């Protein structure tokens, strides 16, 4: 992560910069949930699922409505986000940063949060569905 060089905890909400990807891949900055724990011999990488404030046209088993309270800082503020578990990515930590909501005495104030265990389990089930794997 460019602002905080460590592997975020599993379930952490981060912002991922998908710059350089090609449509229909993700191509902009958006919130994401870290779904992989820190793993040996996999330095600098983690696996994420992106989030969207736009509801899917058709809700599938790989979508999950994630309520976020309090909301994330602008421009990602919304009462809920949709997990897009059909679009799992393994990305460099350099693409990730924590959301921040302002500065205090010149230092950024980061929004560090982790989704609940129940939400993480639901996201993992959606990932299996998105990969066509029946659990």
TrEMBL record:
<dbReference type="InterPro" id="IPR003477">
    <property type="entry name" value="PemK-like"/>
</dbReference>
<dbReference type="GO" id="GO:0003677">
    <property type="term" value="F:DNA binding"/>
</dbReference>
<dbReference type="Pfam" id="PF02452">
    <property type="entry name" value="PemK_toxin"/>
</dbReference>
<dbReference type="InterPro" id="IPR011067">
    <property type="entry name" value="Plasmid_toxin/cell-grow_inhib"/>
</dbReference>
<protein>
    <recommendedName>
        <fullName>Type II toxin-antitoxin system PemK/MazF family toxin</fullName>
    </recommendedName>
</protein>
